[in-house]
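## Example pair
The file below holds two records. Each record gives the amino-acid sequence first, followed by its structure token line.
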Amino acid sequence: MTLMRTLGSAVLSLAFVMAGAAPANAASRDVVRTDTGWVRGEVARDHRIFQGIPYAASPVGDLRWQSPQPVTAWRGVRAATRPGDRCAQSTDLWGLPASDSEDCLYLNVTVPRSATPRRPRPVMVWLHGGSLTKGAGNDYDASRLTTRGDVVVVTVNYRLGVFGFFGHPGLAGSGAYGLEDQQAALRWVQRNIAAFGGDPRNVTLFGESAGAHSVCAHLASPTAAGLFHRAITQSTFCSQTAFTGSRLRPVMDLPMWVPKAAHEAHGATTATALGCTDPKTAVTCLRGKPVSKLLAQEPLALPGYGNAVLPADPATVFAQGRFHRVPILTGITRDEGTLFTALIFPGLTEQGYQEGLRHIFGDNAAAIAAKYPSRGRPTQAVAAIMSDLDWAWAGRASDRMLSEHTPVYSYGFADRTAPPIFPLPGGVEPLASHGSELSFLFPGAPLTREQRKLGDMMITYWSRFAATGDPNAPGLPRWSPVRTGHVHRLAPGPGGVGVYDQDALHELAFWDRLAGH
């Protein structure tokens, strides 16, 4: 998922000017005053970029597993020309960079060159994906989105894995430290983004995969009230109510949210494994453990509820319509399941496919096998089932539920030739895989001419939605809201953008029958 750009370093000057005093060249476009001090970024031909700006104190020592704390003001002008450290994470099979740093609560701001406090632009705050265990804000180059969309883009690091979503009976806020970080970044935006040329009254929170999962959490969080005004969720949905009371269960049967008690029980097990067995001193003991020891433990990397950020189960909040009723743009790729099945079921045999269907679906297994024959590629068949059931069928129910309370615009990204974010093991064909739309918004993998045109259209839709709460723009195919029954197709080539026949492409009537709907 690495979509980094390398930037040269600017020269830091006036390093010993008092923090409250303006530097001699404060009128320069690359110098901006925040509420904790001046920062100097870089000015490119069509945008400005400020990297590695701290939005909360380093959560080390006694601040490990504490709510984010204020940044100490600095003297002089701080160089904002390099990203901050990635939050602590191990590497993975694709070789994404590992990190042992807890000093990681930084954000990056990319601004159209013409944006000023007198001409503020809409703000888009990006929460990266990575299963809440991997990734960083600076993996995403926001320059194209900023310049073509004429928006200010903020990308955020937040605590991950055992540092961001940990719990223990001796801790307050169990299961939500990463979410608290994200809200601290949103509060930083409210206090500071106007100085960069952004409009704090027009903030869109958007993310992909685990980042979109986080967006859903903030939609359900009372402490996020007023921090954002629109939401975009890519490759996730906010509720699994489709499966409630049905005869079906998802292939990848994982909870979206877990109670604080589950985090606390998991944390107590982790403490015991690390030799912190005395309940009275366990938290102090755990705070003394090196990062490497904690990263070696299996995290419960799911947002927890029963804390200040999520006092109630978000599933209940969404079902009762008690979420923040901001306009929502949401969608999936056509083949979401290919990435996950390649990882979970590599080398799946025909026998294993049939046995797996019986285990998951019971009496419905034969009908599903007939609808999704393996044709010698059982892993690909499971991917199709997962794409249709776990994502499209469940996502449709979530979209409809949300649309009863607020405007919702849904899309299906259908470019089956899109470059995948990762090569898939096991010979699985990626098609329009999970995350494959990212290169159309953030420069990364090379795109064809038609794909780049699609990317331009997507950026226009996304940025128009950020500006107005409605993605429609002059010259683009009309995108109607979910309440009209419309889902928008995003694919390259003539006629590629228009109506996405979700029901036919994902066999939704078949799944409705099996579910008893």
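Second record, same layout:
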Amino acid sequence: MILVTGASGFVGRNLVKKLVKKEKIRCLVRHTSNTRQLKGTELFYGNMLDKESLFKATKDVSMVIHLVAVIGSADYKLNFETHVTGAKNLIEACKKNRVKRVIVISTTSTLAKIRNNYGTTKAMADQLFAKSGLAITTIKPDFIYGKDGNGFIKLVDTIKKRPFMPSLGSGKYRKQPVHIDDVVAAIINAMNKKFIGKTYIVASEKPIEIDTMIKMIMKRLGIKKPIIHIPIKFLLAASYVMKMKKNPLLTKAVVLGLSQDCVYDVQPLIKELKVIPRSFEDGLKEVLN
């Protein structure tokens, strides 16, 4: 039995869809979670702050794939409780139930020069897992996109609906967006015990400037609109106002995360995990067909 935390999220539901074909899967979800895509699994209701639910969820499992994360919120308390306190509670539950193998899904945000609250608390959680004595493998994806990815859908909708496309600062910040299927493949391959103690960055091989990404999406959609570069200071101010809205497109966490030049070496992903990530151009053909 494998326990997947955060199973109803973007990565979780795509991962479970693959795993359930070969493994018995238990999904840790909340009562408010959409579980329609988790068919064929054992649903277990709980959360990372409920020690009792984590103890019960980790009972009789051989491995935990830890996916729970706060996405897009700048709230430090929420990020800390979910990532750091949640990690402590999960480690404690695993030790009590003698579950040694854990795949931790982290983020490249932990490697940023200027970290937002998400990256900071995720890095703290990574350290806890590394020192836990458990058999850990850590996966750090860059920006993940796919057909049912909320962040990517918001970006595409913005490009479709607005007369122009706003871009951060100079628009030359480089990213290595990764297709959801490549992330899932990396997690599944990392389950092999020979990868214990290792960390893998999961990203596309070729860095792409943000403006280039936007132009590639426009081309795929068959539209052409001007790109307007907006100063980072203005975007941070705008994110402060937008935080009052439900599910805002722009948050401080998003601005800080995107306004940095980030280039990663993915050769370990290719050579060791045997995952050859799609180029962004090829990935778009699948997602926006």
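Notes on the second record: The longest strand covers residues 135-141. The longest helix spans residues 76-96.
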